[in-house]
Amino acid sequence: MDSVTILGQVEAGGIEVPYFLPSVPAGFPSPAQDHLEQRISLDELFGLHRPQIYLARVAGESLQGLGILDGDLVLIDKAAKAKRGDVVIACVNGEPLLKILGGDQHQVILLSANPHYPPRYVLEAEEFQVWGVYVGLCRQGRHCG
């Protein structure tokens, strides 16, 4: 079964990076877009300055249909109230899982976004908690080193 490793709270760095407007083309570059529009703080953009934000590393492919892949880092807000349909870190019997929260007031179901992974029904006798709601994704585009 897929799992998630909690890495811990994100420390704000206060570093600003260049931001180009209106967008960066994925095809041929436009000479009109060669100028810097502003600088932005990734801390502000992703809310990293907030103490309730932490990182977790994804292990497995159950959420690949949502674009969340094995090895990705996900940003989790432990203060957000989870709703049905949210991607959450759910802890079942001490095991943290990154899944889609489903079901109703009588039955909790943890869903995948991959047809090869069946729903995980949380049984009445099992210990269940939601540790936080997925709010962002960090993916390394090229392995350096």
Task: Give a verbal description of the structure.
This protein is 3% helix and 41% strand. It is mainly beta and 145 residues long. It contains one helix and ten strands; from the N terminus they run E-E-E-H-E-E-E-E-E-E-E. The protein has an eight-stranded antiparallel beta sheet with strand order 1-4-5-10-6-7-8-9, with no helix packed on it. The chain has one helix spanning 42-46; strands at residues 3-9, 16-19, 38-41, 53-59, 73-77, 87-92, 95-103, 108-111, 120-122, 128-138. The protein has one domain (3-14, 35-138): Umud Fragment, subunit A (Ribbon). The longest helix has 5 residues, at 42-46. It is globular and about 55 Å long.
Helices and strands, with pairings:
Layout: E1 3-9, E2 16-19, E3 38-41, H1 42-46, E4 53-59, E5 73-77, E6 87-92, E7 95-103, E8 108-111, E9 120-122, E10 128-138
Domain Peptidase S24/S26A/S26B/S26C: 23-135
Organism: Pseudomonas berkeleyensis
Protein name: Peptidase S24
